[in-house]
Amino acid sequence: MELLEIAESYGILIFRRRFGSRFRPHLSVRVRELNVDFHVDSSPGRGYNIITHAHTDHYGNRNMKNFKAIASVETSRILNATENQPFRGIVHNVGEKLSLSGVTIETYPTHHMHGSSAYYFRENNLLITGDVKDYSNLPRCDVLITEATYGHPVHVFNDELDRVIEVAEQGYELGVYPIGKAQRIASLLSKNGIGFQASEKIEKICKVLGIEFEPGDSRLVSPKEVKNGFVLSAQRFYRRRIVVSDHVDYEGIIDMVNHCDPEYVIFYHGNPTNQLIEELESDGRKVLTLRDINVSLS
C-alpha cells in the first residue's frame, strides 16, 4: 500500500530487480513520467546506476565499465585506484546539479567518507543518502531512502578522536578500514602534525585524494594486521578498540530522519530493528525496509 501511495503522490516507483530466485542488491527507483530507472548501489541495469560512495558493498566496483553509472569525482578516483582500471561513468562534484534524461538531481555531502554523496530528486521530493556520518547538509524531503547500519538502540556512541591522537603520538598501530576511514584518520593526524606510516593500499588511496603526510612511528593498517595497537571502530567485537565510526549511531539515525522530516522512510541498507521502526512510526512516519518492497521487475 505504501509503495502505491508513493507512486501516486510522488511519481516514483520503488522496486527490486529479480536475479533468478533472488534479488539484485538494494533497490531501484523509476521516475514514472519519464520512464527512467535509477539503481541504487547495485549491479548494472537498464537506466542509471547511482554509486553513493566507494565501499565495495555499494557496488561501484561492479560498475567500472558502466557508462551510465553516476559517482562523485573523489569516488571515481578511489575506484580507479582500488580497481586498477578507469571508471567510465558520469562523474560530478559533490554539490553539483545533474540533468539526466530529463531528471534533475541535486547532490549533497554525507561525510561518510571522501566523495560520499546523497542524491535529491527535487521534482519527486526524494532523497537517497547512501551511508551517512553527518546529515547537517541534507535537505528536507517527503521520501527518504537511507541506511541503518547502527539501527539497534544498543549502538549509541561518540567518536574518541582525542584518544586516537594520543595513541598515534605514542606510536601505536591504528587499525582502520583501508577505504574511507583510513583517509579520514590520515587527514586528522596530518592536520595535527602527527607523522605516520601507512600500508600500501592506504597510502595509494591517500595519494589519489591529495592527502599528504610526514613519516612517523604510528602506522595505519587494516584491522586484521594490528599487532601492537588499537582498532578504530564502533563494533563491539574488537578487544582493543577506540570508538571511531563513519556512520551515525542509533540516536543519529532518528535525528537525521527528524532533520529531513519525510513522510516515508525506506531503509535500504543496514540493520533497522523493530525498535527503530516503531520509534519512527510513533512520530507518524511510514517506515519500510527491503522486506516490504514487493514490487519486482527483471
Detailed description of the structure:
This protein is an alpha/beta fold and 298 residues long. The protein folds into two domains: 2-153 and 248-297, 4-Layer Sandwich (Metallo-beta-lactamase, Chain A), CATH 3.60.15.10; 161-242, Rossmann fold, CATH 3.40.50.12650. The chain has seven helices and 20 strands. The strands form three sheets. Strands 1, 2, 3, 4, 5, 6, 7 and 20 form an eight-stranded mixed β-sheet that branches. The longest helix is centred in the first third of the chain and has 11 residues, at 73-83. The protein starts with a helix and ends with a strand. The mean pLDDT is 97. InterPro entries: Metallo-B-lactamas, RibonucZ/Hydroxyglut_hydro.
Contiguous low-pLDDT stretches (5 residues minimum) are none
Q: What do the pLDDT scores average to?
A: 97
Summarize the main sheet: 8 strands, mixed
CATH architecture of the largest domain: 4-Layer Sandwich
Number of domains: 2
Which radius of gyration do the C-alpha atoms yield?
A: 20 Å
Alpha plus pi helix count: 7
Q: What is the ordering of alpha helices and beta strands?
A: HEEEEEEHEEEEEEHEHEHEEEHEHEE
Q: Regarding CATH, which class of the largest domain?
A: Alpha Beta
User: In angstroms, what separates the terminal alpha carbons?
Assistant: 21 Å
Helical content (DSSP H or I, runs of 4+):
10-25%
- The tally of strands reads 20
Q: Judging from the principal axes of the Cα atoms, what is the shape?
A: globular
CATH topology of the largest domain: Metallo-beta-lactamase, Chain A
**SS strand fraction:** 25-35%
Label the structural class. alpha/beta
Going by CATH, what is the homologous superfamily of the largest domain?
Ribonuclease Z/Hydroxyacylglutathione hydrolase-like
